[in-house]
Design a protein that fits this description.
With 572 residues, this protein is an alpha/beta fold. Helix 16 links the parallel strand 18 and strand 19. It binds iron/sulfur cluster (SF4).
């Protein structure tokens, strides 16, 4: 049966355009895993950047592996062949280092499944000396790595580009050495975290702190790049394939971090400051990509803020390329960006109002009003875009029923504007998700809103907009928001929960495993956290101290209950 798996791998490789050809051989072999399918993993620029960086180091070979698609998974199970890498189809377990890039909580069970399929023990303490080290890096290491701590031999905390060389050097120095001695040595390097050197304590069924082994650092500082180092490591697609979210677009990272500090979002708070790539450097990367594709995607938390973004777009259009953006803000929408999107054939644009109330929007630190949002939508439709996607959240701290009614009003007004601008044949799609409190943000202590309340509010919006022509509403399941919320702020006990459910991760299985582990869901998810009590990620340094985050949280609460009018548009 495994010939079909090989064929799939060969088919994927044949469809790829490779800008950087990996070396073969070498003294350090790394299997780089993305804990989701090829489609999702290859859409992730971070994964591509790490892959390219590793393969540029002389003597290092890096190959990719992904979560098998459902049919492939059946074949792996039926034939018993261990999970293998895409490039050489060698078993993942044969490499020196197995590294995962993890960005989202819903990928945690996938990581466990991939270890299992690779024939590697799930828990680091069960791995033998001749098995590869398992490293976890990626965005979650800036927030809370603890739910994966028992799976990882090692975490690379922070921005990978600053960690890769020291890691490879340490592996070379430690070749042939005892595994424990190698890990103890790595634990002394800035940005590396060896979880087995820290013992968790619990009190009354709650996490109560981590005890560092003698010699292990008590506090850990994630590695960040300064502006100069960031500009030295421009991330751009090194492999183009049609099998991604962006088709064959080549992606370029324009900046890292975000200046806006929206209180629910980890991007603004987990990076120290925004770093921009200079326009000449970006243009070099664009020119290189234009040799292989005419579509370029610019990636950034706030593309519209790049000081010379308009010039870059214009040059790209003049060369006959088309451009898309990872995100746009309603209050930062230069005309030239809109022009570039429309000339690139964009029919749909996403502008997230987040909520339908000015007061609540200010409380989460989004600084535009309903009126500003509608003006932006009008410009978008006037320019020729037919469809608009609106993202919003339900269950935010300070939210009342009136805020949800205001969201309905904002969607109706947006639809009206769409029709006024001659786009009545287009669509408005409202996507509603539940607010999930995330580590390292001012809302990290907040409770998750009860499922009943969130479901009732989402249903209210769905009912109110149900008969509205040209409007579609999608609501995310509050069940998944609960699991995401538990994993985002979980402690080390969650690794055992993940290990129980990863084969069949139904909601019922999660709930049962949590109960068996003695985790009180009501306390972990639905109760506000006591700011005086240790947090599972409390040993990680963050650009914002707990004191500053608490002050900012109090500011949000004052705004939510303050005198600012709830909405600036008249009721429809
Ligand atoms: S603008 Fe977007 S990326 Fe930046 S902090 Fe706000 S939500 Fe996060």
């Amino acid at each position: 049966m495994s010939w079909h798996l090989i064929q799939n791998a060969e088919r994927r490789l044949a469809a790829e355009t490779v800008l950087l050809r990996p070396a073969s051989g070498g003294d350090v072999r790394v299997a780089l895993g993305y804990p989701n399918t090829y489609f999702v993993g290859m859409s992730n620029l971070g994964m591509q950047a790490v892959y390219a960086h590793l393969n540029r180091i002389p003597g290092v070979t890096c190959e990719r592996f992904f979560l098998p698609d459902p049919e492939e998974l059946q074949e792996y199970r039926a034939c018993g062949r261990p999970l293998f890498t895409l490039e050489s189809q060698r078993p993942v377990g044969d490499f020196d280092l197995v590294a995962f890039s993890v960005s989202y909580e819903n990928d945690y069970p996938h990581l466990a499944l991939m270890l299992d399929l690779a024939g590697l023990p799930l828990f680091s303490k069960e791995r033998s000396a001749n098995q590869p080290l398992v490293l976890v890096g990626g965005a979650i290491t800036l927030l809370n790595p603890e739910p994966l701590a028992d799976f990882a031999d090692l975490f690379a905390l922070g921005e990978a580009e600053g960690l890769i060389e020291p890691l490879i050097e340490a592996l070379r120095r430690g070749a042939g050495r005892d595994r424990r001695a190698l890990l103890e040595g790595l634990a002394q390097l800035p940005g590396f975290y060896v979880p087995s050197l820290y013992e968790p304590r619990y009190q009354d069924g709650r996490f109560a702190g981590l005890m560092a082994a003698p010699g292990a650092p008590a506090r850990l500082e994630p590695r960040h790049l300064d502006s100069e180092a960031f500009q030295d490591t421009l991330a751009s697609s090194q492999i183009l394939t049609p099998d991604t979210e962006f088709g064959r677009s080549g992606l370029i990272e324009v900046s890292r971090g975000c200046p806006y500090l929206c209180r629910f979002c980890t991007v603004g708070f987990s990076y120290p400051r925004v770093r921009w790539q200079p326009v000449d450097r970006l243009w070099q990367a664009v020119e290189r990509l234009l040799e292989f594709t005419d579509r370029v995607g610019l990636i950034s938390a706030s593309v519209g803020n790049h000081p010379r973004i308009e010039e870059l777009c214009q040059r790209l259009l003049d060369r006959g390329g088309s451009v898309s953006f990872s995100s746009l803000r309603a209050d930062r929408l230069p005309e030239s960006l809109l022009e570039a999107l429309v000339r690139g054939g964009a029919q749909t644009l996403t502008l997230a109002p987040e909520v339908g109330s000015d007061r609540l929007r200010r409380a989460i630190n989004k600084r535009f009003t309903d009126v500003g949002y509608l003006e932006a939508a009008r410009r978008v439709f006037r320019k020729g875009v037919r469809n608009l996607r609106m993202y919003s959240m339900v269950g935010l701290p300070g939210e009342e029923d009136e805020h949800v009614e205001a969201l309905v009003g904002l969607v109706r007004q947006t639809r009206r504007v769409q029709c006024e601008e001659g786009r009545s044949g287009g669509r408005i799609t409202l996507s509603m998700g539940q607010f999930v409190p995330k580590p390292a943000t001012p809302f990290q202590w907040e409770a998750l809103a009860p499922r009943k309340v969130v479901s009732a509010r989402m249903k209210k919006v769905e009912r109110a907009l149900g008969g509205q022509g040209g409007v579609q509403v999608h609501s995310e399941s509050p069940k998944w928001a609960l699991l995401q919320g538990l994993l985002a702020r979980g402690d080390r006990r969650f690794a055992r929960v993940i290990a129980s459910v990863y084969r069949e991760p139904s909601f019922r299985a999660w709930m049962q495993a949590l109960e068996e582990e003695g985790i009180d869901v009501a306390q972990e998810a639905f109760a506000p956290r006591d700011p005086a009590w240790p947090l599972p990620w409390g040993h990680l340094d963050s650009p914002w101290s707990a004191g500053l985050l608490l002050k900012d949280r109090a500011r949000a609460a004052r705004i939510a209950s303050g005198p600012c009018p709830s909405t600036s548009i008249p009721p429809s």
